[in-house]
Structure formats: structure tokens, C-alpha cells
Amino acid sequence: MPSFLYKAKKGPKDIVEGSIDAESESQALSKISAIGLFPISIDRKGEDADKGKGAFPFSFFGKIKTSDMAVFTRQLADLLEAGVTIVNALSTLSKQTDNKRLANIVEDIRDDIKGGNSLAASLGRHHSVFSKLYISMVNSGEISGTLEGVLNRLADFLEEQEEFKAKVQAALAYPILMAFVGTITGIILLTFVMPRVVGVFEDMGQTLPFITLLLLGISKFIRVYWYIIAAVIIFLFVVMRQIKKTRQGRSLLDRVKNGIPIVGLFLKKVDIARFARTLGTLLSNGVTILQSLEIAGDIMSNELAKRELKDTFNKVRDGAPLAKALASGTYFPVFVTNMIAVGEESGQMERNLLKIADSYERETDKTIKIMSSLIEPIMILVMGIGVGFIVISILLPIFQISLIAR
After folding, report:
1. pTM above 0.70, yes or no
2. Which residues pair with 20 in a beta bridge?
3. Of 210, 234, 293, 392, which has the highest C-beta tally within 10 A?
4. Could you give the number of structural domains in the chain?
5. What CATH code is carried by the domain that includes residue 89?
């Protein structure tokens, strides 16, 4: 019989650890609760050795997008609510799913369940596709008998993620297009148009203005040393990738991003909203506080926040309240820690975490609208100045000839 290591609360400040034999994690949780303990975390002995088994080996056969996962999760919930068995539901979805890689994975999960595994255990064999959050919530749904409701909440969560990503992409699409068009226009004017037009005046012995000579020098440098520019860009790209591979490098980049006005605050709000939404969703579905903190910490994009959450995890594991553990750091604002403290006192921490997420998501939506309304005119202005500068440098010699002719 498998053994499980557990950590549980015996009283408000008493933490006990032990080992218990059970057929499954759900049975272990039931046994722990039956002896009057409140489980904080539970791990199967030797579980780490099995991590990664069954991971889909052909990851290059198409990327599985968040929208694909949201549709799959919603359809699975609908089929289960309609009374279809989990095996039949997965068989149906494997045929209906457009993404071939996801369809193959769904078939694999169905076969695992036929072999006697739970849905959560089958999903865990494909941890490169299904996140810890997804697997933990499904596990809690199976234990509590509310799998359909959990899947619906997971679909809501994934759809909200996709909606937020779409908002950011929509806000950046036009500025990126303008920057691309402006850059191409500038390169064409500098490398093709300007040398030919200015060459006519040089043949006439016309003295060129300083601004024209300056841009002519830039044009010549681009045409002659374009390979150096390309090499520098590639070098910087490679260096950035190497920096992102190290924790110290990511921390340095995060400090730089945090110091950028407006952008730094916006990214922080996005991270806090994601953390609160994930933690609240996990706790409301019966996942232990330590598991929830570990998963919520993994989805944070800021390395400094991840480091603080590891310290928070250790303090909560030692028996400290979550609000107090978060307040000892510097990343999370007082509003967040106060809301969590009130939730801990009232027994509604999950509800307060979701309120925090709603609040910060509203603020990020406002910031996106403000940034998108400001970026467009700024990009047009910058492009106008750049192109206008080049055009004026070309026209100045013409004006000089006209004045001489008069």
C-alpha cells in the first residue's frame, strides 16, 4: 500500500508531521481529517521519481494554445454534466479536437483512465501540457466529487487568461505595425532614395547642408556596414537569451522593468492579479495552502516576486499566517496583505483573494486603455519627426539651388 507524508495543523499554532498508508491521496486526506487534523500538505513517497513519465514526446507537432485548453475543458465539463462517462467524454473530445497533438494526448489520458488511473494522475503524465494548477484543481474535484464544477471554473480561468492576453495583443498590434512600417520606410529613404537624390547635387558641385551630410554619412554606414549592424543585433539577442536563462540575469532584468515608469507598475499589477486569482481559485477548490502557494509562485513572471513567495512558503509551512508572511516582504502592497489578513480572520480568504484579483484586473484594464490611447499618437509623432527629418535633409539642397538661381 502506498505511503503519504503529510503536514497538518492540530491547533491554531500546532503543526504536526507524519506518514500514513492509504490507497490514494483522497483516502489519505480522509484518514488525516478523521483523526482531527487539518491537512496543510500531502506528498506521496517516491513521487518525484515518477515525474515526467508519460510526457508527450512529440512536442514539435503543434503548440497547444490556452484557447485550445479552455475549449477542451469547457466541453469536458459540459459532457460530464450531461451524464456522459469520463471515458466516453474523452473519446468524443479526441475526435472533435482540431489540435492533433491535444487529440493524441486526450486519447492517451482516456487509455490511462481505462487502466484504472484517476483523471488527475493521467493528466500528471502530461505535465508539459497541463499545469500544476490544472492538475491540482482536477484532483481536488475528484476528491470532493465536484469535478464538473471544478472544470467549469478552470475553463473560466483559462478564458479570462486568454481574454487578457488578447487585450494586450490588441493594444500593442497597431504600435508594432507602425514601428515596423516606419523603420522600413526610414531604411528605404536612407539607403536608396537619399544617395541618388543627393548624388545629383554633388555632381553639380553644390555644397550640402550639415544635416544632409550627417544623414548621408548614416546612409553610407548602413549600406557599407549592414553586416556589422546585423551581427550586433544577433549578438544582443543571444546575450539576452543567455541572461534570461540564469536566475541572477532574470532578477536584473526584472529590476530594470520595475524601474520603468508606468510599465513597471503595470507589470507588477498583472503579476499580483494572476497570483491572487490562482491562489484564490486553488484554495476554493480544496487544494492545501502549501500546494496552492507553490503553484501560484510558479506562475509569477517576476523573479523577485518568486523569491519572496519562496520565503512566504517556508514561513507558512512553519505555521505563520499567510498575511504576516507576505507582509514581511516588499513586493506585495499593504492593500493585498490587509485583505488577506481580513480573509484569514473571517474565514473567507478565498473570497478576498478573488476580490483582490478583480480589483487589480480592473486597474490593469484601465492602464491598457490609457497606454493604447497614448502609444498611437506618440508613434505617429515619432514616425513623422523621423521621416520628416529625412525629407527635409533631401529638400534643403533644392531650396539652396532655388535661392542661388534667384
Report:
1. no
2. 4
3. 293
4. 3
5. 1.20.81.30
Dihedral pair phi/psi, residue 16, rounded to 5°: -120, 150
CA distance 335 to 276: 12
**What range does the domain containing 139 cover?**
66-159
Calculate ∠ Cα 369-372-376, nearest 5°.
150
Output the pLDDT for position 56.
Answer: 41
Cβ neighbours of residue 279 under 8 Å, at least 6 residues apart? 292, 293, 296, 353
Q: What pLDDT, on a 0 to 100 scale, did the predictor assign at position 352? A: 92
pLDDT of 24 reads: 61
Other C-beta atoms lying within 10 Å of the C-beta of residue 370: 13
Tell me the backbone φ, ψ of residue 6, rounded to 5 degrees. -130, 160
Query: Is there a single domain that holds both residue 366 and residue 244?
Result: yes
How far apart are alpha carbons 355 and 280 in whole angstroms?
Answer: 9
83, 203: one domain? no
400, HSE (Cβ side, Cα atoms, 13 Å): 16
Tell me which residues of the chain have a pLDDT lower than 50: 47-61
* Cβ–Cβ < 8 Å for 124, 138: no
> DSSP secondary structure string, 349-379?
HHHHHHHHHHHHHHHHHHHHHHHHHHHHHHH
Contacts of 125 (CB under 8 A, 6+ apart): 53, 54, 55, 108, 109, 112
The model's pLDDT over 309-347, given as tens digits with 9 standing for 90+, comes to 899 999 998 888 999 999 988 889 999 999 999 998 888
In a domain, 60, yes or no: no
In sequence order, which residues have a C-beta less than 8 Å from that of residue 44 and are 6 or more positions away?
2, 3, 4, 5, 25
Question: How much is the pLDDT for 50?
Answer: 40
**Locus of grid cell 537569451:** 241
Nearest to 269 by CA among 300, 311, 308: 300
* Residue 215 counted as domain residue: yes
Strand pairing category for 3-9 and 38-44? antiparallel
Nearest to 336 by CA among 406, 271, 264: 271
Q: Which helix (H) or strand (E) holds 36?
A: none
- Residue 9, burial from CB neighbour count under 10 angstroms (0-12, 13-18, 19+): middle
Cβ pair 219, 190 in contact under 8 A: yes
First to last CA, the chain: 103
Cβ contact 349:322 at 8 Å: yes
Q: What is the DSSP string of 193-227?
A: IHHHHHHHHHHTTPPPPHHHHHHHHHHHHHHHSHH
